[in-house]
Amino acid sequence: MSTSFEPSPTESALAPLPTPGLLLDQQRMDRNIARLKQHLRPLGVGLRPHLKTSKSIDIAQRLMATPTGPATVSTLKEAEEFAAAGVKDILYAVGIAPAKLNRAVALRNRGVDLSIVVDNLDQAKAVAAKCRELGVKLPTLIEIDSDGHRAGIQPGDPLLVEIARTLQEGGADPRGIMTHAGGSYDARSEAQLVAAAEQERAAAVQCAEQLRAAGFASPVVSVGSTPTAHFARDLTGVTEVRAGVFVFFDLVMAGIGVCSIDDIAISVLASVIGHQPSKHQILVDAGWMAMSRDRGTANQPVDQYYGLVCDPSGRPYPDLIMRQANQEHGVLEIRPGSSAPLPDLPVGSLVRILPNHACATAAQHTYYNVLSEGRVVAKWPRIASGW
Amino acid sequence: MSTSFEPSPTESALAPLPTPGLLLDQQRMDRNIARLKQHLRPLGVGLRPHLKTSKSIDIAQRLMATPTGPATVSTLKEAEEFAAAGVKDILYAVGIAPAKLNRAVALRNRGVDLSIVVDNLDQAKAVAAKCRELGVKLPTLIEIDSDGHRAGIQPGDPLLVEIARTLQEGGADPRGIMTHAGGSYDARSEAQLVAAAEQERAAAVQCAEQLRAAGFASPVVSVGSTPTAHFARDLTGVTEVRAGVFVFFDLVMAGIGVCSIDDIAISVLASVIGHQPSKHQILVDAGWMAMSRDRGTANQPVDQYYGLVCDPSGRPYPDLIMRQANQEHGVLEIRPGSSAPLPDLPVGSLVRILPNHACATAAQHTYYNVLSEGRVVAKWPRIASGW
After folding, report:
1. Where is composition skewed (Polar residues) in this entry (chains A, B) (predicted)?
2. Domains with residue ranges and CATH for chain B
3. Which of B359, B364, B386 is facing A366, going by the closest CB pair?
4. Angstrom distance (rounded) from CA B253 to CA B53
């Protein structure tokens, strides 16, 4: 929500970089990280940052409270890569497939406090069987569905206690509750965001109480999504908050009202390669391979198509968007209905394109070109992709 | 259009593979390659396969007429990677940004016959200046816009000759014409596909004649898109055909009528991780990170959402599609309006999901699990991603 006053990188500072390429504005990222940590501090709850957005060891170290965690990941590959870099406290936050249990145990045997997630009895039985088979004690959170968004059991369902009991009887460690308020992405006002956060908290706490009433200590009550993390007013009963995309923010988050355009810390650098004057189009060398195919703003009040186009210093051109994306071509146009002029961008001009969805756009790249105080200061690799 | 009779991989053959993972059915791929080569042979025109779809040296060797080419690429990174693997005749088929010319020259200096593409005078001047500066002769095709789809100058525009003259005066080698009938993706009948192919051919040949009338030999007339390559009835005047996605095919190509579902050679293997019985949903561990965000069938008569779901042998379940995709979660449902039953797929079951767009889905992975005669026989890496 703040305005950006940092010095702007000049076209000459960016000119040596290959295009398309991923840029990261370090001051904006640092500001985004500080904002969420400051928001959570008076609420008395720590952050377990989701590393799936950045997938970078350099960035993880800025996100985590300590060099060893806590952290959240979306794949066991991420868990393995971050563990190899010294992270010791990791939640794998996607309901586990039984065939992945051996890899999870292998990580724990390397000294990583990895916890896993289940939301049904079949998974719980598989976890219990694996614990029995290998004589290990897998810490397991039970996912609940706080808003009908995706995975998780319904609050109040007696299945919750049955899952915890199944886990415990097999020798697993039912550590508590986790939920993700993915439905908060549909919020369109501050009041709705605040309500989504409270709904998430209340559902998670209610389920933890249900477990405790049945004799399970449930020390962990883990909630989170970037919108609810920023708009929670009270986190009583919650023990940790997870969030990922806040580190960079993006056009979807700006469209929801969680950040402003000026907070978006990543962009894709592209070169103008041609024009179609009769169609008022500018062609650039960044297509969906560089931006991703994400169209997350398509159903928001302002559709940003494949991204909002900025000058090399990061200032948006009025209503200039990437209207079409092919694999390595992007077509820039003025947003339909706008009377803004098409800027004069000769062949070879550089532009920066803000992404709809930071997780998806960053995933198309292997490293970050880090900008600080208007200069390119570092190249931070992303961890190996894949599963 | 043929029916598949190859032996089916069993669930037990696939069980050792990590999920999500990319599967490649070698028999289907070989059949797709043979089909296009057989179609082009009587038309007297060779194939310059586009390697951007597979980005694999193993697959390139099956696509190309000889171990050294010819080949088409969409980035200089691809050109560099395939050149390092011995490919010598490469067309970089995206209009070049002036800042990339040094890399293009460096490849030529390593003995690669790399040709580049321009479609405007600014690019031609930049190419000419680089040729003068370095004393090199860059082979350059001029892109024309045969169907209003994207890049290229309009057929009949006198600019064509001016670009050729600018190139030649600087010491570059204006080798001829290239075009890409991307508009053929909107075709909805065989007659429209045949017409799109003829429109592409006629425009390219007309422009080559325009160049020849002005004194430029224009030995290359390069056309192509997967739909037009398969439906061309006559290629008089054309010297080469480019196509990429045909090697795998996908749901978009099936929707256009270029192939059948049984021809699609890649799929994403996923594990069932849960259910939402009240919403008739099955959750799997493949989301958009494994499938891509491509929704290329959204505007086709049959919307396949994020992909069509098959059993482990590759047979589609009736109307079972991936309705929603998050980063590492996919939500399977029966297609809206269908009365097909939701299959009984317990936690841990394996499914294979056919992609909307093979180029986009394959790009989310780092290797292919190659299936042949129902067994996993190889792991073929994709070249390094990035630019």
Report:
1. 1-11
2. 11-22+257-381 (2.40.37.20), 27-247 (3.20.20.10)
3. B386
4. 14
